[in-house]
Amino acid sequence: MESNFDLNLPYIDHENEFLFDLNQTPTDEEVETLDLHNEEEDDGLVNSHVYASDLFTETDQEIYNDTEIPSGKKKNLSNVERWAIYNALLERSHDGKLKTNTTRLVSELFLVSIRTVHRIWKQAKETSNGKEVNVCHKKTGRCGRKKIHVDLNQVMAISFHKRTSLRSLSVGLGIATSTLHKRVKEGMLRRHTNAIKPSIKDENKIARLKFCLSMLEKDSSIHEPKFIDMYNIVHIDEKWFYMTKKMEKCYLVPGEEVPHRTCQSKNYIEKVMFLAAMARPRFDEEGNETFSGKIGIFPFVTMQPAKRRSKNRAAGTLELKALTSVKREDIRACLIEKFIPVIHERWPIEDRGKTIFIQQDNAKTHVQSGDKEFKEAACKDGFDICLMNQPANSPDLNILDLGFFSAIQSLQHQTCPRTVADLVHAVEESFKRYSSEKVNYIFLTLQSCMKETMKTGGDNRYKIPHMKKATLDRENRLPLQISCDVSLV
Q: Is residue 27 scored above 80 in pLDDT?
């Protein structure tokens, strides 16, 4: 394409005459003329320019203040920022249409590109009628590492003894342990601690059903049978308390020395047997305790002279020694000499004319219900105390095995006894410290267990129900007796 315009020749306009030559240095008059002309054009631009900040409404200013503005243009916007942009566009729209320069103003407001604003508005416009508008990004679940699927049917096909830990389960599934740990946190898998329960035969089931039915009030409503208040029942049982545990857990700070525990033999840790007796505590209408229900916890120990001299004491010094074998004669002596006198002393006066039942399990060393020596001691001072046995293989029908022993044992392990006397003192203090309100909770749990036993036909294949007893107690709605369905009676 030919051109008649030559930059090397001076250009002459017939109207404006001579302008300037690019190859020549302009004169002072030409420079002044050009500067004056540029100033006039700049004044016109400044006066006619409209800034985005001048168009901000009050709502825009609130969005601008509430939204965290990045230092530069951001490629990936969060869902909160995308919704803020959409709301700003929606306020400027009219019948679903945007005004001129709206996307440019919103892009300057949020410091993003105009194309990003266009895409957000287009995504909102493409929403079908009747559906909720969604302008969130579509990256969730579509980017990053893909989630590894765990087949729950494959998990259930693995035997229980091969999934006692995440590591053994990962071997059976062929999946990494870290993946299974994530599924546990998500709730797809759950950890369960399984305890061995006594084997129940058919005759045991019948005996358990009869025992639970005998605990129902005879005068209760036919439509809503209730369990008795159990105020006249004292639960007794024996338990070994150990000087320490084989394994203990504690929390240390960085650099702290690890505790060093030793004993002569971890299979023969020193222990003491105790006989515990517990009745249901009583409270008045205002919630004040009138009877703690704590009859006592009695150790089976004797005072014996030391056979040899040691650095701690001389030979012949009397020491407290634990009985290594507790026989029926020892338990009878404990009941007659220690247990019955405390009953006579602490039992509420208003119930002294009523029969008191002593519930025990079916251990061979226990005193029989027809024992003459026990009856003679129990009938003194106008008391009527009788022994009764709970069904065989039924520790869930005794409050001591149901929760009391484990509670005071955890309190006892918070101490560090060195001798038998220290251990006896620690157990007795734990017995005293345990709250009477919690003992009352265990009695309600016992009634709930009886109700579940009746539902399962006398079996122990049930889960102990949770009633939120502490919450009900704070709201003064804790029941005294548990009701059961008429169909169970």
A: no
